[in-house]
Design brief:
The chain is of the alpha/beta class. It has nine helices and 16 strands. Strands 12-13-1-6-11-16 form a six-stranded mixed β-sheet. A hairpin with a 2-residue loop joins β8 (158-161) and β9. It is globular.
């Protein structure tokens, strides 16, 4: 099973996510080829490396054509039509629509309008559409089975947008983070944008305080625009996989231990005296459970036609069992669950 882990220690934005996924191995040529199918105003993708507080990261700029002013405002229904008409792969289409739907539902609630009347400002611009659809294509090219995320820092302070001076996190951003673990942040800047929040709430299936159990294949870094005072402004993406043969190794190890114990007992059988034996054995078992949970949150009816997106949950339990012969031992299973049935936070 292939896993993509979003390590959002400096928040997440659309351009950071797309750049980090490409830096971690997503097919850039495939992404650019498929993005060209979108009927958007002319633009250019500029990929280059930067250094953020000592970390080399990939930076992406979506540059509009200066001779053709881009359209900044679009309705949600228009963006859905734009994506569907592009005839991308089924999975990329579903992921992109899932992200935009989360943003649209949040905006509809904040502005008290129906979802069909949601009018995107910053998120409706060419760069935001490219970021969202590009992330969907990147995940598709990586053939990821699960997308897992760290708790998300949102930032603080204020930000000026089309509607005026707003608090950070922006209202739509915070609305999308309901039921999702957030991390404390003292940075007086916006760390997680509405597009970043849409990515997390739309396509992430579970949350881990640290890296989940997996074999690491690739690591990528996507740079944000601002410079932060005390930390690199980057998103780290870790791509890895689980190895089914590890379970066989554990089985072989345990069988070998049983055979060794039997040999030891046979060697001492028949002696007229006793030898004291004090054996300490430690066994470590990794158990991973995949299970699907129904999302109890109501979804707009049109999503069922386009999205086909289900929320998967991953539960990973690490059990350390130490015991001495002749003594009882217990098993402790600590679990931490956030206040939502959609996700599981595993420490």
């Amino acid at each position: 099973m292939k896993i993509v882990y979003l390590d959002c220690f400096s928040g997440i934005a659309g351009d950071m996510a797309l750049a980090a996924l490409v830096d971690a191995g997503a097919d850039k040529d495939y992404i650019e080829q498929e993005l060209a199918k979108l009927q958007l105003d002319p633009y250019t993708l500029h990929w280059y490396r930067v250094n953020k507080r000592g970390v080399s990261a990939l930076k992406l700029d979506v540059l509009p054509d200066e001779t053709h002013p881009p359209e900044h405002h679009r309705h949600y229904s228009g963006i859905v039509e734009l994506i569907v008409r592009a005839e991308l792969s089924e999975r990329a289409t579903a992921l992109a629509l899932a992200i935009f739907e989360k943003i649209a539902v949040a905006e509809a609630k904040i502005h008290d309008v129906s979802i069909d009347r949601v009018h995107f400002h910053e998120v409706g611009a060419v760069d935001s559409i490219v970021d969202v659809v590009g992330v969907a294509l990147a995940v598709d090219s990586l053939e990821a089975d699960k997308i897992i995320c760290s708790p998300v820092p949102l930032g603080s302070g204020t930000i000026r947008i089309d509607h005026g001076l707003y608090p950070v996190p922006a209202p739509a951003t915070l609305e999308m983070m309901r039921g999702i673990p957030v991390a404390e942040s003292r940075v007086r800047l916006e760390l997680t944008t509405p597009t970043g929040a849409g990515i997390v709430s739309g396509i992430v299936s579970g949350f881990h305080m640290s890296l989940p159990s997996m074999i690491v294949d690739n690591v990528g870094y996507g740079a944000g625009t601002r410079e932060l005072a005390d930390q690199p402004n980057v998103l780290r993406v870790v791509v890895g996989h689980t190895e089914p043969y590890l379970d066989k190794w554990h089985t072989h190890h345990e069988l070998h231990h049983v055979e060794h114990t039997q040999e030891h007992a046979h060697h001492h059988k028949g002696h007229g005296h006793e030898h004291p034996h004090d054996h300490d054995h430690e066994h470590y078992h990794d158990h991973e459970h995949d299970q699907e949970h129904e999302n109890e949150h109501p979804q707009p009816q049109h999503c069922g036609r386009h999205c086909g997106h289900s929320q998967g949950l991953e539960h990973s339990h690490d059990h350390g069992h130490g015991h001495e012969h002749g003594h009882p031992h217990g098993h402790g299973h600590p679990h931490a669950h956030p206040g939502s049935d959609r996700f599981t936070l595993i420490t």
